[in-house]
Amino acid sequence: MERIEKVVRQARAAFNSGRSRSLEFRIQQLKALERMVKEKEKEILAALHADLHKGGPNAYSHEILGVLAELALTMEKLPSWAAPQPVKKNLMTMRDEAYINFEPLGVVLIIGAWNYPFVLVMHPLIGAIAAGNAVVVKPSEVSENTAQLVADLLPQYLDRELYPVVTGGAPETTELLTQRFDHILYTGNSGVGKIVMAAAAKHLTPVTLELGGKNPCYIDKDCDLAVTCRRITWGKYTNCGQICIAPDYILCDPSIQSQVVENIKATLLEFYGEDVKSSPDYERIVNKRHFKRVVGLLEGQKIAHGGESDEASCFIAPTILTDVSPDSKVMEEEIFGPVLPIVTVKSVEEAIEFINRREKPLALYVFSNNKKLIRRVISETSSGGMTANDVLMHMMVPDLPFGGVGHSGMGAYHGRCSFETFSHRRTCLIRDLKLDVLNKMRYPPLSQERLDVTKFVFLKHCSDWRVGQFLSALLGAVKAVMAKIFSP
Amino acid sequence: MERIEKVVRQARAAFNSGRSRSLEFRIQQLKALERMVKEKEKEILAALHADLHKGGPNAYSHEILGVLAELALTMEKLPSWAAPQPVKKNLMTMRDEAYINFEPLGVVLIIGAWNYPFVLVMHPLIGAIAAGNAVVVKPSEVSENTAQLVADLLPQYLDQELYPVVTGGVPETTELLTQRFDHILYTGNTAVGKIVMAAAAKHLTPVTLELGGKSPCYIDKDCDLAVACRRITWGKYMNCGQTCIAPDYILCDPSIQSQVVENIKATLLVRRESLMLWELSPLQRRSEFLELWLLAGVLSTLFLLSPTILTDVSPDSKVMEEEIFGPVLPIVTVKSVEEAIEFINHREKPLALYVFSNNKKLIKRVISETSSGGVTGNDVIMHFFLSTLPFGGVGHSGMGAYHGKHSFETFSHRRACLIKDLKMEGTNKMRYPPVSQKKVDWTKFILLKRFNRGRIGLAVLALLGVVAAVMMKNHQSVLKRKALLVVLAVQRLGWPSGW
């Protein structure tokens, strides 16, 4: 515990030295990270396999590729993201420099999760480094091999004092949360999210919480069911259902329920073959505790497909439940496993009402050929993000902010959004000491006359803005010329 | 207390009815607010005078003008702010619609402060209404006349269920904070800010905290002292120093300290309504005055304190510990800008920071080596008045920001939306199991090649995409595969592509 306090203190001293601030330094660290990912690819894949039974190609596409893409994007764009952003000025500030300066916050804490243990630590780390901060990294202890690997590798490639790794479980995390940070990004569940925010409140530390929820997936009668079900199957059973934005449950009309089941079954056969257990592409539940939890959700349910499990290997077969009751256990909490309940609804109105009665999810999915219906679902519901006619994909667009709302989280990151999340947007207005006569209006003694001029400047500017803009520009030019001619 | 729970429940039901969402409704409510401010100007000014002894013209410029300007700006810009924001796409999403949708959060809580009791409730309210939310307004009970007026007026002009006002003190605020909101904006001090955030954590409610701090004001030797001191005097003593972004204390070289004092005195004497100027020497009188202003800082209503300057102040003295929020201006001497920067950085990040110098390089240096919510160079307060600049703190001076478009975004949820269609399923083959090295190589190629971009390649790619789509439409299944192959083959050839 003393060690944790020391590590944070060192990170702060390292940040205060100023060396993490220059763009050159930040890009140099990001390049080192890139080298690390490329040189240690084998070790990273081995750790992911040990933790989650992720096959090589799967692990590569899901965890390594995304990180390399984010690194390349960030290194390319950083100079433009970090540049001061000039803002539109008004009549009063015509002669001034007005801009938003992006500045590091200080020492950032990143708490990773176990389902994508590498990318969920790396992605935020990239943004935090890019923004010029020191970063304390706390990988999830549940994915212990990846956690240990991250703890071994980062000090070999990055500045050791600026980017320390702290490993451990609940006691270590609790201790970490008593320390003071300038931003905390936590990925995990809502219960712990509240604990993180409460701890952050003690220091007035802003937080980004990437939480979860039950992501609904509405299938309209008017859609290509084969394609729809293939896409849903892919998003649901990848990583054994352990994705924060996996479609959690399906809502559809009772008349298409059995077709949906048949299509998913057909796709499962395509993907994993007859014997799912022996497919190298099918992962496992992360540990016994979650295994038991997910298996427990099957109790009393109508299993249309799957249901087999093996505790020794934490294997749960891809499972579909039909005619699920909204009040059953499997419809209470986020499933985070390869179990797909289907709840029947008679109309899109009923689907929307169903969704709105529950907490706002991290993701929402709609499948329909009818774009109007899709827009209607969007406008009458809320969720962190959404994809129509596919699943997961909104996460792959770097310029879309990735984050939740309500119980599914607050704040967002990815790409430029990461950079901004880990930066302070400082308002800057640089004036000069000339032409103070123009300020006469604001100085006491205030008279009605002075007030009328202020009123004119403030409000006339807003209502006839085009004329006002032109006049302001003219006035500004005149003032500037006068200043030049009459300055000492 | 039951009443508070009922009010919040009603606001949520009103929000769930959906009526606050249409742009027409929002603009109609903002127009009503505008009418209220114009029709009830006399009453508003009277309340401000009763609460803070603010003179008519002062109160008008500080509290009413800003509100009218914000209303006008918001009503004009709302359609463009609220429009979905398309984002740049990559190769995988080329045929899709990708955009950020700005959506209301739900029920927002605004807790006002007593120093600018009208504007600090109205400004956030405007943004929250513009973003389509229901809003519970809790004005500060310390400025009780304005609080009562707001409670009387809002229901006369706005939708009564969507925008209720809750008055009261600590018990009522505590009760309010147990309720669930979708965003809380609090203006006030750091200590209560922590309480608000802790309460919000129980419901995972995001917060915007507009807090305070000791806003330093560095005066360089190289500057026009008369102008600098006139501006500082204006910003420091307006509203009797009770402005969150007032320059709290001065840092300057000892050699210019007495000139600074003289210049401030000269500026103050122009103010006909000022009483006397006290320049205190180190000992006794300083301490009794400090007692007085400490009290005044808390009660803020009845005492008329004279503008005060303190010289040769020790960094460890009480006046240098907490935010002064009164008409007392300590001067701490420093021998260089390095010492000033170090002094500032030893303390919590302030809400505002001021530097006066003819040397722009020095100003930029101070900016780059310190942190604060905002900065104005060669003036004070003014960064507050440009609505395109986000207004907010950092560290102990706050989190989040608002004003203008930033208000709208603070009170909105930025929802990521990707609309695809069910065609061209062939292009998804790469991602489906059984996974092979070949599939991974393709994905790698497409994801990473994006960063050797060329504009021409982008245009060609777009053209190819169009060609492929047209071909597909006209010749459906037969040419579908061929079109795909054309696109993919071009990629394979390493054409300098967009992605």
From TrEMBL, chain A:
Location in or out of the cell: Endoplasmic reticulum membrane; Microsome membrane
GO cellular component: endoplasmic reticulum membrane
A Pfam family per the record: Aldedh
Entry superkingdom: Eukaryota
InterPro entries per record: Ald_DH/histidinol_DH, Ald_DH_C, Ald_DH_CS_CYS, Ald_DH_CS_GLU, Ald_DH_N, Aldehyde_DH_dom, Aldehyde_DH_NAD(P)
Membrane-spanning segments: 98-116
Catalytic residue list: E210, C244
Protein's membrane topology: Single-pass membrane protein
Coiled-coil spans in chain: 23-50
KW Iron-sulfur (keyword) present: no
GO-annotated molecular function: 3-chloroallyl aldehyde dehydrogenase activity; farnesal dehydrogenase (NAD+) activity
Listed GO biological process terms: aldehyde metabolic process; fatty acid metabolic process
Oligomeric form and interacting partners: Homodimer.
Family named by the database record: Belongs to the aldehyde dehydrogenase family.
Protein name in the entry: Aldehyde dehydrogenase
Gene name as annotated: LOC108500524
UniProtKB/TrEMBL annotation, chain B:
One GO-annotated biological process of the protein: fatty acid metabolic process
SUPFAM superfamilies documented for this protein: ALDH-like
Main location group: endoplasmic reticulum
Pfam families: Aldedh (PF00171)
GO molecular function, one term: 3-chloroallyl aldehyde dehydrogenase activity
Keywords (A to Z) from UniProt: Coiled coil, Endoplasmic reticulum, Fatty acid metabolism, Lipid metabolism, Membrane, Microsome, Oxidoreductase, Phosphoprotein, Transmembrane, Transmembrane helix
Active site: E210, C244
Record-level GO cellular component terms: endoplasmic reticulum membrane
UniProt record similarity statement: Belongs to the aldehyde dehydrogenase family.
Ranges of residues in domain Aldehyde dehydrogenase: 2-267, 303-414
Organism: Lepidothrix coronata
Name the record gives this protein: Aldehyde dehydrogenase
Binding partners and assembly: Homodimer.
Topological relation to the membrane, as annotated: Single-pass membrane protein
Coiled-coil region: 23-50
Intracellular or extracellular location(s): Endoplasmic reticulum membrane; Microsome membrane
Domain of life according to the entry: Eukaryota
Ranges that cross the membrane: 454-472
InterPro entries membership: Ald_DH/histidinol_DH (IPR016161), Ald_DH_C (IPR016163), Ald_DH_CS_CYS (IPR016160), Ald_DH_CS_GLU (IPR029510), Ald_DH_N (IPR016162), Aldehyde_DH_dom (IPR015590), Aldehyde_DH_NAD(P) (IPR012394)
Catalytic activity: decanal + NAD(+) + H2O = decanoate + NADH + 2 H(+); a fatty aldehyde + NAD(+) + H2O = a fatty acid + NADH + 2 H(+); (2E)-hexadecenal + NAD(+) + H2O = (E)-hexadec-2-enoate + NADH + 2 H(+); octanal + NAD(+) + H2O = octanoate + NADH + 2 H(+)
